[in-house]
Amino acid sequence: MASAAPRQDSRSTSDKHFALLRCFFPADVFNIVIFGPVIVLPAASQKRRILKAPKGIVTLSLDAPISTTLDAQQHQPRSAGSRSSSVWTGPRFGWVALFAAAGVLATRGVWEDIYRIAMRDEEASHIWLVPVLVGWLIWIRRSALAASSPRSSLVGPLLVAIGWAISHWGFHGPRQAPWHFGALLVVIGCVATLVGPGVLLKIWPALVVLAMIVPVPGMVRQRISIPLEQATAFITTGILKLFGAPVERFGNMITIRGYPVRVAEECNGLRMIFPLLLIVWVFCFTLPLRGGVRAILLITSPLSAIACNVIRLLPTVLVFGYASESAGRKFHDYSGWPMLPIAFLLLMLIVWMLRKMRFKVLLENKT
What we know:
Blueprint: E1 2-4, H1 13-24, H2 27-44, E2 48-52, E3 58-64, H3 68-75, H4 80-85, H5 90-106, H6 108-120, H7 130-139, H8 142-147, H9 155-172, H10 176-195, H11 197-202, H12 204-211, H13 218-242, E4 247-250, E5 253-256, E6 259-263, H14 270-284, H15 291-322, H16 325-335, H17 339-356
Antiparallel strand pairs: 1-6, 2-3, 4-5, 5-6
């Protein structure tokens, strides 16, 4: 957050209540819980159809498939032999759940550690979104999964062994990320033992999101956050100077009218980058976007998060400089809540610009 030199302002009871609210509901989680359904669900709540415009530009109507490839898999007629080979039965679901639970139980120390990190560290609060988004990506591929044939595979025990070795190495390192990732690989291997790698390949976008449940190590986060803090302070100072504001910058410290405002980790854009990446990834693999468009959205999402933090920091610095410290802190806290949907809208603006420049944004329906 943007912090300032201490003043003797006393915080009111409402400030304490708001701080308690932020402790349980970080801004990025609040944004996605509120705005996530607005962003993602309308994109897939109805069946879609891809049409060709008169000039050859592909447009999306409200009844186009979520993905042309996925739609073809879902609507491909199944023969009697394929129906008999599909063994998605109640007992198999039960055994898959049992094996997954056994993997979690065997590595329960890791999952308890991930839970503690997600509870106490706002920088890792995006972890709470991962199960919901994984479930969504699996749900929209349910027909393709129903058409597949799960089979027992030795790939599963191999993944379990590799995951166990990685987790053991990370624990005795000590290295946090390998310890966590190895446990996740153990659980995936337990599931792969009964369903096979072919089924997992059908839901690979969900597995990528699942990897985000591994918290980013503090050392890695610090190496990213320090340059982000300085870049955010540099851009903010430059814009304020352009409009004649009396500001100076020293590293990540902005001074306005002799009053210092520090750009800390909460205001450098890192906290917004991970939730935004998750939402953009789910958006990209919910709609039938071309590979190039998906790459553009994923690459520009961190830049969009940083731009939104600059937009947020500009008035925050002015409030700190021309009003009280308590007013500046309140503005900083409240202004963080709408930033994630604004960043997503900026990415949608990129899609709109690509279409205006006659780029093909959506995959064509070949059926």
